[in-house]
Amino acid sequence: MSDPELVAFLRWALPRLGxxxxxxxxxxxRVRKKLNERLRELGLPDIAAxxxxxxxxxxxxxxxxxxCRISISRFHRDRDIFDHLRRVVLPGLAERASExxxxxxxxxxxxxxxxxxxxxxxxxxxxELPAERGRVPLRVVATDVDERLLERAREGRYPASSLKExxxxxxxxxxxxxxxxxxxxxxLRAGVEFHRQDILEVMPxxxxxxxxxRNLAITYFxxxxxxxxxRGIDERLVAGGYLVVGAHESLPVGVSGLVSCPxxxxxxxxxxxx
Length: 274
Ligand SMILES: C[S@@+](CC[C@H](N)C(=O)[O-])C[C@H]1O[C@@H](n2cnc3c(N)ncnc32)[C@H](O)[C@@H]1O
Known about the structure:
Layout: H1 3-13, H2 21-24, H3 28-42, H4 47-56, H5 60-67, H6 79-99, E1 105-110, H7 116-128, H8 130-133, E2 138-144, H9 147-155, E3 157-158, H10 168-174, E4 175-178, E5 181-184, H11 186-189, E6 192-196, E7 208-212, H12 217-220, H13 223-236, E8 237-244, E9 258-261, E10 264-270
Parallel strand pairs: 1-2, 1-7, 2-6, 7-8
Antiparallel strand pairs: 3-5, 4-5, 8-10, 9-10
């Protein structure tokens, strides 16, 4: 299918799935590949025939919804924000938790893909905050709608391409080579629990001190979906807790309860009296 045909199709279909076209602009080649496979499976000649198929067989929308999921992730993705979490946010959360005698600092990685994001948090905590480590543990709940990705996450084995943003020392101390792949050390896999959840239907109970919801709701969901997810996150964040969104994401106007941190636009804090 030509690019204009693909774009016209996505502009027609995405809003019907509660998704937004601008989020897909850069990743549309991935969707095209999956759409072409689906056309072959169904024996359809072109995207116009697939559009007719969606109209005639509404159950096909669920298949398309799955085809439109983008699962790109990497360890330490957008390293500036992880540096800031390591230097400022995590030590602050550790201190607050130990002052109030909390059992753990609690985090939620929403749309965790194959575990790259929650495991990054884990090893920053274990390897980079030695003083806090003895005081209070970090617990991470990681959720994603795609069970296949979660299986890979539980396994903890990754190709080199997933690790390219990691500083060398972290790569060497956190992973062991396993053939062509790298396996995360067992002690760093502990403390992360993975659950299959569609964020538009169910969210973990909370409360959380830190939530990462990056490159999911704000990039791909329409405004109603974004607001629904942000409401759920706000309800689960403790007063003074943090939300991290993607490096190129900004919250829709009028979201109350969360204040942007002046030096880090992707970091939001819930009102201390929230
Ligand atoms: C682009 S990846 C982002 C991964 C990671 N947060 C990051 O920024 O590197 C988006 C993830 O969200 C998941 N996802 C998509 N729709 C979802 C939904 N409705 N509920 C939960 N997860 C979803 C996808 O399966 C995918 O793993």
